[in-house]
Amino acid sequence: MAEIRVQHLRKAFGDFVAVQDSNFVVEDGEFFVMLGPSGCGKTTTLRMIAGLELPTGGQILLGGDDVTMLRARERDIAFVFQLFALYPHMNVRKNIGFPLLAQGMPSAEIRTRVEETAKLLRIDHLLNKSVSGLAGGDRQRVALGRAIVRRPKCFLMDEPLGTLDTEFRDLMVHELRELHNRIRATTVYVTHDQMEAMSMADKIAVMNHGVIEQFGSPREIYDRPATMFVADFIGSPPMNFLGFGGGLAKGAREIIVQGAKVAVPEVREDIAPSDMALGIRPEHIRFDDSSKLRGAIYGTEYLGTTQIVAVETADGIIKARVPAEIRLSTGDHVGLTLSSARLSLFEKGSGRAVRTAIHDVASERRAQHG
Amino acid sequence: MSLTTAHSVVAPSSNSKRIAGTIIVLYALISIVPLLWIFATSFKTPPDSIAYPPKILFQPSLEGYCNLFTTRTRQTPEYINSLGPATGFCDETTRKRNMVIAGPSNFLPRFVNSLIIAFGSTFCAVFLGTLSAYGFSRFKVPLADDLLFFILSTRFMPPIAVAIPIYLMYRELGLSDTALGMILLYTAVNVSLAVWLLKGFIDEIPREYEEAAMIDGYTRLQAFWRTVLPQATTGIAATAIFCLIFAWNEYAFAALLTSGTAQTAPPFIPTIIGEGGQDWPAVAAGTTIFLVPILVFTILLRKQLLRGITFGAVRK
């Protein structure tokens, strides 16, 4: 197992820049997820780590060794493909043993290793079956088996659950994380599904247009999004934005949104007057008739324990997640109260988050860890 | 009002199945009649073969096969009677026609030539075709589209249109009437077909298989050999059959460029007619034997061929 260090990584296909200046470190034994919409460069980054694409610039270090320009087979990594890429002309046993055959391992040893691996994944009863008859989940396990049988430096997975049915997917998310807890292998996992990312990752990098927008733990990314893109991409429904104007002074604790005063976490930097946005997660909105921030109910989505209520305000529709018991009907006027401590502020132009007191917690925690 | 089962829009009704079946059987019968006729003629005696009205029922004889494999000379009955007892069936039959066997005919060496040239050129065309198709399918080849068009363009005119230049070139290069020359020629004609057919098949094989193998520690060539080739067998088999049929049946170039040592069966078989009257049974026997290799090859590969020609029609 090894740490993966990516420095100034860049990849261009002709005029199109797929990845620009990526920097991140995946620590030894960490489960790292690259998350982003399709075409954001996450798969290209993964393929460069694997050696299936060569970068246009930058460096990739695997366990301290520079592997940037090495061939895939010289890197000692394992890759799980979205379509599994199980060899249809081999049975399960041969598929799993295929990487060991490349190393010239004696067949008796291959046998033991394959059987150990199959047991770990609970597919030992399938070893002599043809891969074409397997169910989606079992194919996935065979693909994982082929990856872990080699005990490589790290695992790279490209949307491995993308083709599975939803029920299998939830099961496999759980299994993958459990497997990771057992073998503690450095893993880079690419997905566009935020639920997979949030439930499995130790660290997440959110990518967009070839740029890493934010790198952090699932909690950091959800609670303190670094950009409006991250805030909008993570969460279902995503974070709401309410526009406001004017600058911010260091130490400010209040802003004016749609004529209503809203308390915000203490601002930690001076911002010149410009278009700004206040970011609110749907679950941080409560209905309170005394509030000056008002809107009309536009529609509701009943989810059982909670309901998502769309409220039309002067600045467009925002969504609130409120207890299911509250009775509401379309057209009702409501006042909105926001949980001040959990609000984010953004500069609309750059999309960047303004430093406020919510970031203090993070730096304190980091200091404690350090 | 009676209840009827709703008819399915996808499954053919039993009526249409019956009609389709009848048409197929009729067509198969029509196609097979000439083959059966040739097969029957090969077992007739020369008089039976030209009898009118044609004989459907006849006493089968191996005379045609005897005549195919031997050359014979006409002799006086006195000479024939002076010979010792006949050494076998062929000897006996020949003597009845006032002839004696002079020696083996050229059929066997010509047939062997056909085997060597057809299978040799098929192997070369499929081998080169697979490698180039893989290259075109997986790598960024400069001017790939133009090259592929160029390869295809060699098929735009009938090959025989270039017969004269090839004849002259072959004479200069000493390739006339050599097996090597014929293998090169048939390979050149077939390789364009092979590249195009195989490129289609290889394009359908996801790259992930080779990528997985390369990550698992194999070189590209090993990955190609162990993951792409086994999955391309259907395509390779289908392509091989097409190439083989062309090379096996080709007549025009063979007639023009081979006359002796490298002559193939197609230009040889018609020459049998001339020897001692119109020997249709011998010609039919030659044709029957000539059909066997293709028949065997196609039957051996029929599964792959069927899957091959319907490839891509159904999502896997």
From TrEMBL, chain B:
| The entry's keywords | Cell membrane, Membrane, Transmembrane, Transmembrane helix, Transport
One GO BP annotation of this record: transmembrane transport
**Cellular component GO terms, alphabetical:** plasma membrane
Gene3D superfamilies attached to this UniProt entry: MetI-like
InterPro entries (UniProt xref): BP-dep_ABC_trans_perm, MetI-like, MetI-like_sf
- Start and end of every ABC transmembrane type-1 domain? 111-301
The listed locations are: Cell membrane
Q: How does it sit in the membrane?
A: Multi-pass membrane protein
Q: Which SUPFAM superfamilies match?
A: MetI-like (SSF161098)
At the top level, the lineage of the source is Bacteria
The record's PROSITE patterns line, in alphabetical order, gives: ABC_TM1
The family annotation for this protein states: Belongs to the binding-protein-dependent transport system permease family.
PANTHER family associated with the record? ABC TRANSPORTER PERMEASE PROTEIN, MALTOSE TRANSPORT SYSTEM PERMEASE-RELATED
Protein name per its UniProtKB record? Carbohydrate ABC transporter permease
Query: What's the source species for this entry?
Result: Mesorhizobium ciceri
For this protein's source organism, the top of the classification is:
Bacteria, Pseudomonadati, Pseudomonadota, Alphaproteobacteria, Hyphomicrobiales
